[in-house]
Design a protein that fits this description.
single chain; about 300 residues; mainly alpha; 8 helices
């Protein structure tokens, strides 16, 4: 097969993954909706009614991950390089990393309840990649032809995937916290973990990946020196990467030294995540500077 064949298979793989994640999203939504018994049977859950559909959601997520992994692999083969040269490729690889982080957490911490917001986030990412960010497979621009591309961008993608997962958990915490302060959780939310569990899980994910993000920022500076003769130039993307680092450092500092927990920590986590998303979306598409490689 030639490069155009692999490019076609990659596009087909992304479409297939999107369809599988859509099925997973519907399954998780039904799992949440129909696990609640009617008011005539008090307020308990009948887990036997939704066990199979919950398993279906998990299986579809795994299959979507496999399809997306193949799509990313074929995209790289078609271009003859690592598939991280533009916003489309970064988005599909980021969705892959996010899914991998969720599946690991699902295996490690049994967080099946997070399937609904996770699959929704993946669908939004892939949908945006397909409809807005797509560009044909092409060679790298000269500035990206460096071994540091693999080191810097891969660590940024992994960090972004884990940050997004942590933000989903922090957002879930704030929703449930509001319910509990206003009289108690609704029936669909009763089977979700305690607030303290959500708080700890969000913190552990950030603490786990923050050193990797630190390395990514340092690797980017080293690459900048090799490419442009300076380690740091306050380029918009460099600046916002540093702002993200400071925001997550403040989050960890607030928890460890000040003792922030719960609502304040969750809001700070979401703020830090928003700086990463702003850098990823706005700076890449509408910003100016040496780091704008959206391909649009």
């Amino acid at each position: 097969m030639n490069s155009s064949d692999f490019a076609y298979l990659s596009n087909y793989g992304v479409d297939t993954a999107t369809a599988l994640f859509a099925v997973a999203f519907i399954a998780h939504a039904l799992d949440v909706a129909f696990s609640v018994r009617s008011s005539e049977v008090k307020t308990k859950f009948d887990f036997s009614r939704t066990k199979r559909i919950g398993v279906l959601g998990a299986v579809m997520t795994v299959l979507g991950f496999i399809a997306l992994f193949i799509a990313v692999l074929f995209r790289g083969i078609s271009a003859g390089r690592v598939p991280w040269g533009n916003m489309y490729e970064f988005s599909i690889t980021g969705a892959l990393a996010f899914t991998a982080a969720y599946l690991f957490a699902l295996w490690k911490y049994k967080i099946k309840w997070l399937g609904l917001p996770v699959t929704l986030s993946i669908l939004l990412t892939l949908g945006t990649a397909i409809t807005i960010l797509y560009v044909p497979s092409a060679p790298l621009v000269p500035a990206l032809k460096s071994p540091w591309l693999v080191i810097h961008v891969s660590t940024a993608i992994i960090s972004g995937g884990v940050f997004l997962l942590s933000n989903c958990i922090a957002g879930t915490y704030l929703i449930l916290d509001k319910y509990e302060r206003n009289g108690g959780r609704p029936q669909w939310a009763l089977k979700l973990p305690a607030l303290e569990t959500l708080d700890q899980l969000s913190y552990r994910l950030v603490a786990f990946v923050f050193p990797l993000w630190t390395f990514s920022v340092i690797a980017g500076a080293i690459w900048a020196e090799a490419a442009w003769g300076r380690y740091w130039g306050w380029d918009p993307k460099e600046t916002w990467a540093f702002i993200t680092w400071v925001a997550y450092a403040a989050y960890l500092h607030a928890r460890v030294t000040v003792g922030w927990r719960g609502r304040k920590a969750a809001w700070l986590c979401l703020f830090a995540g928003s700086t990463f998303l702003f850098n990823y979306v706005y700076i890449n598409i509408w910003g100016s500077g040496k780091h704008t490689y959206s391909g649009l």
